[in-house]
């Protein structure tokens, strides 16, 4: 979402409608709720998709309210932007220090509460019967089992610069995705088929599909190779290209391509896509 209030509220409304059905529903957001652009429409570059005014403070407030209204049904996964608030490296996409900008808006008490909350966010969500593993970035981390994730420290990362989407001259000091398990969990944009299956089957031997975000898929999704399904519901896309996934948790998935074909839904129905063929 990266601070897109309209998109978050739209997704929340879809979830609430599904939650009222007899079978109920779960909502999983795969990280990066926060840190959006605070540009005017005149300053807005085309590569960021549909214009919006980033308001991470309001998104955090709405996200906490939704979670409180549906306890145990709304699941936020830690992304690299949230990690910047709880021990991760500085990210500087639209501000020199995105976390500092949001924390200035929240104030000391709001910041304290947000940090405590984000420290409870998991890295991974698993739908066992559906054979789905959901996480923030591509499943590139080398692990032996889910226990490896339980021991990961959030603190102690060095600051690094983050190049903006326009290709700014300030390069990253290091590649987080190559540093360690946590770096790969929160920063990897892709991985091999072998590495992807190795990760998801370390989490659950029956898993078939990894669903993640982090990177921007202009058409709303990308299946680069099995078992990878990269999904873009908000940031960096035009409204007509934004997609979310709706899947029956009792139905076993067979492949990323099958899930993409059967389960992707437009976030804003009625708006024509720009980068995706209908």
Outline the fold blueprint.
Layout: H1 5-19, E1 27-29, H2 56-69, E2 74-76, H3 80-83, H4 98-118, E3 124-127, E4 132-135, H5 147-150, H6 181-187, H7 193-203, E5 209-212, E6 221-222, E7 228-231, E8 243-245, H8 256-263, E9 264-266
Parallel strand pairs: 1-2, 4-5, 5-7
Antiparallel strand pairs: 3-4, 6-7, 8-9
Helix pairs in contact: 1-2
Explain what this protein looks like in three dimensions.
By secondary structure, this protein is of the alpha/beta class. It has a single domain, classed as Purple Acid Phosphatase, chain A, domain 2. It is built from eight helices and nine strands. Helix 1 runs parallel beside helix 2 (56-69). 40% of the residues are buried.
- Find the CATH topology: Purple Acid Phosphatase, chain A, domain 2
Secondary-structure-derived class: alpha/beta
Helix tally equals 8
Which second-level CATH architecture applies? Answer: 4-Layer Sandwich
User: Which class in CATH terms?
Assistant: Alpha Beta
Number of domain units: 1
Anisotropy-based shape: globular
User: What is the arithmetic mean of pLDDT?
Assistant: 91
Major beta-sheet overview: 5 strands, mixed
Uncertain runs are 159-174
Name the descriptors.
single chain; 278 residues; alpha/beta; Purple Acid Phosphatase, chain A, domain 2; five-stranded mixed sheet; 11% strand
């Amino acid at each position: 979402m990266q601070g897109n209030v309209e998109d978050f509220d739209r997704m929340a409304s879809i979830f609430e409608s599904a939650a009222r059905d007899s079978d109920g529903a779960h909502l999983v957001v795969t990280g990066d709720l926060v840190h959006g652009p605070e540009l005017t429409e005149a300053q807005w570059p085309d590569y960021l998709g549909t214009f919006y005014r980033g308001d991470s403070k309001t998104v955090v407030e709405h996200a906490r309210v939704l979670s409180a209204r549906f306890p145990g049904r709304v699941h936020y996964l830690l992304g690299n932007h949230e990690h910047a608030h709880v021990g991760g490296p500085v990210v500087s996409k639209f501000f020199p220090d995105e976390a500092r900008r949001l924390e200035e808006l929240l104030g000391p008490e709001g910041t304290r509460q947000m940090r405590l909350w984000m420290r409870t966010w998991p890295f991974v969500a698993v739908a066992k019967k559906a054979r789905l593993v959901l996480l923030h970035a591509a499943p590139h981390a080398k692990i032996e089992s889910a226990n490896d994730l339980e021991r990961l420290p959030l603190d102690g990362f060095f600051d690094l610069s983050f190049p903006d989407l326009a290709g700014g001259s300030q390069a990253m000091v290091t590649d987080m995705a190559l540093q360690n398990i946590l770096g790969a969990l929160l920063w990897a944009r892709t991985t091999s088929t072998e590495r992807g299956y190795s990760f998801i089957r370390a989490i659950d031997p029956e898993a078939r599909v990894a669903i993640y975000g982090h990177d921007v898929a202009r058409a709303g999704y990308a299946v680069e190779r099995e078992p990878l399904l990269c999904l873009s519901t908000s940031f960096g896309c035009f409204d007509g290209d934004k997609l979310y996934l709706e899947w029956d948790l009792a139905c076993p998935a067979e492949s990323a391509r099958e899930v993409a074909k059967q389960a992707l839904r437009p976030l804003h129905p009625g708006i024509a896509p720009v980068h995706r063929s209908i």
